Amino acid sequence: MLKPEAVDVAKFRPALAGAVNTDVSADQWDRVRQRLREEIGEESYTSWFARIELDRISGTTVHLSVPTRFLKAWIQDHYLDRLLELWRDENGATRVDLAVRTAVARSLPLKAANAPRETVSERPAVVAAPVRQAVAAAPAAQGTSDVGAGSPLDPRFTFETFVIGKSNTLAHAAAKQVAEAVPGAAPLFNPLYLHAAVGLGKTHLLQAVAWAGAARGRRVVYLTAERFMYGFVAALKSHAAIAFKDALRSIDTLVIDDLQFLTGKNMQQEFCHTLNALMDAGRQVVVAADRPPGDLDALDDRVRSRLAGGLVVELATLEEDLRHQILRTRSQVLSEQHRGFAVPAAVLEFLSRHVGSSGRDLDGALNKLLAVNKLTGEPVTLEMAEGAVKDLVRPTDPKRVRVDDILRVVAKHYNVSRADLLSQRRTANVVKPRQIAMYLAKTLTLRSLPEIGRRFGGRDHTTVLHAVRKIDGLIATDRALADEIEALKRLVAE
Ligand SMILES: Nc1ncnc2c1ncn2[C@@H]1O[C@H](COP(=O)(O)OP(=O)(O)OP(=O)(O)O)[C@@H](O)[C@H]1O
């Protein structure tokens, strides 16, 4: 293995002076990657640099490419300076240009020869049973009715699997305190009321309270508000309402989820009686809803004020670190359950940044990757993930570039009309902006060459290809144009 200090830098400098010697540049590239690998470690290297390629060296600019926009942005943010330093040591480069590889870029005949190709681990995919959501009921009060036995609990929703972050520290601590309180001791926070928007972990925490409380020998009943209503109606019908009430009132901890769905005057009254009876008897009540007690308009004032009188805690939106951690632990579990399913670090990072911010979106994204992996045998890579979770990407992300945006920005910048760009006119003041617009359409959107041709006044795909190659070539030699195009890209993205 070549050590960095063994590199005779001077030997390779002439490569920059004139035409690129692909053997020399391939060797240089090998050494740059090797040094990077040693600096950042194998795992990070494989995650971020396994699919980076040297496209060409022109002048003192080194052109590298990666397959996805996310990878480009990440490397640019974190490693571009370091890459430049390493290249500067090798051949005196003054600039490293990182592009997203397109079909066109791939076909350019400038790639360093024999550059070793590295791929992210390609394990054989094994088709396995779909993820199963086992359910189990927590041990409940002796002699309770069917409903008294509680709604089913998901065995995955425990404190052990709950990831703590800034957005849920207080809610987690309060839930833990409630779950671990000594049986019979007067509750500290009663009721404990958790609220949050959808998918932020309310049910998970509530069920964790139920599991942990039951494990400590407490009589815990977990009910969704709907199940509570159903149970009460069923008990009324079978003349077992008294038994139902007694069963509920004899427990240690009542956990009610999705309280916003509690409707109807009778139900509210019944719930209010149960709440009062339990709290007056020193029993713990834990409630979750999608809004604070004051906003539960359908609820009786007395219930609202009783609920607000305990500890009310909001679970905020999952922050990026927390999303990342949740994804990491979930994907580890899936990997253990499904041989051949592995989610590389770069993909976890991509998902935590771009997928919607509720826990349910994160689950959905991982399930999507699992499904694609199982059904097609395709290993999970950034490219695969970007395609698979397209529909789960947050709308707040930088907007997707449209050909229309490109036409608008280019027309304005070069002071021509949109119609000119789409027309058959061949005057120089129109031809170049048109070629630049086509180049931008190819590099900033996912559209194919024929699609772009159609959007540019019904042109053939070879015309688009010619334009893209032409501008690509000019950028390599014309610094001013390269800067201008970078500025246009920024304008289009705004
Ligand atoms: N902090 C966390 N740690 C681990 N998993 C989490 C966390 N927060 C949310 N999740 C996961 O996100 C998913 C949705 O969470 P949960 O069902 O608890 O949401 P919710 O707030 O009850 O939503 P809703 O209001 O729609 O019922 C679950 O798979 C849950 O395990």
TrEMBL record:
Residues 1-128 are annotated as: Domain I, interacts with DnaA modulators. PROSITE patterns: DNAA. SMART domains: AAA, Bac_DnaA_C. ATP binds at residues 199, 201-203. GO terms for biological process: DNA replication initiation; regulation of DNA replication. Transmembrane segments: none annotated. Keywords: ATP-binding, Cytoplasm, DNA replication, DNA-binding, Lipid-binding, Nucleotide-binding. CDD domains: AAA, Bac_DnaA_C. It is found in: Cytoplasm. Residues 188-317 form the AAA+ ATPase domain. GO terms for molecular function: ATP binding; DNA replication origin binding; lipid binding. The keyword RNA-binding does not apply. Residues 402-471 form the Chromosomal replication initiator DnaA C-terminal domain. Residues 374-494 are annotated as: Domain IV, binds dsDNA. InterPro entries: AAA+_ATPase (IPR003593), Chromosome_initiator_DnaA (IPR001957), Chromosome_initiator_DnaA-like (IPR020591), Chromosome_initiator_DnaA_CS (IPR018312), DnaA_C (IPR013159), DnaA_dom (IPR013317), DnaA_N_dom (IPR024633), DnaA_N_sf (IPR038454). Signal peptide: none annotated. Oligomerizes as a right-handed, spiral filament on DNA at oriC. Belongs to the DnaA family. Domain I is involved in oligomerization and binding regulators, domain II is flexibile and of varying length in different bacteria, domain III forms the AAA+ region, while domain IV binds dsDNA. Plays an essential role in the initiation and regulation of chromosomal replication. ATP-DnaA binds to the origin of replication (oriC) to initiate formation of the DNA replication initiation complex once per cell cycle. Binds the DnaA box (a 9 base pair repeat at the origin) and separates the double-stranded (ds)DNA. Forms a right-handed helical filament on oriC DNA; dsDNA binds to the exterior of the filament while single-stranded (ss)DNA is stabiized in the filament's interior. This is Chromosomal replication initiator protein DnaA. It comes from Azorhizobium oxalatiphilum. The lineage of its organism: Bacteria, Pseudomonadati, Pseudomonadota, Alphaproteobacteria, Hyphomicrobiales.
